[in-house]
Amino acid sequence: MKASNKIILLIITSFVLVAFIDGYFLYFKEQESVTFLPHSLFIAFCLFAWCKQHARENAVEKLKYFPLMCALFSFIGVPAYGYAKFGFKAGNKILAVFVGYIALTVLLIGSIDFFVKRMAM
Known about the structure:
With 121 residues, the protein is mostly helical. It has four helices and no strands. It starts with a helix and ends with a helix.
């Protein structure tokens, strides 16, 4: 498995872990968004690292501001990186994979939240 894919797997795993932690604190301790800031910083760091590693794996030079864009504005930065550095066809593939990972993450978080909420009842 490529290192850039390991970073994506780490991001998804972190969302699953945070969903359990936030669900526990929300439904059992009545505290909201306990992990918001640390997790946001972690995701930004991971997206920065992913962009640099993905570029390294694909021999992309002169990244300029793309790693920072991916970290701070992921919904704009990841597609912009894909289209600017890989063209329309490969950029569409990167965008499709990005949207797929987001959909998977939302599905996992929703399922975990439902599960934790049922446990609290």
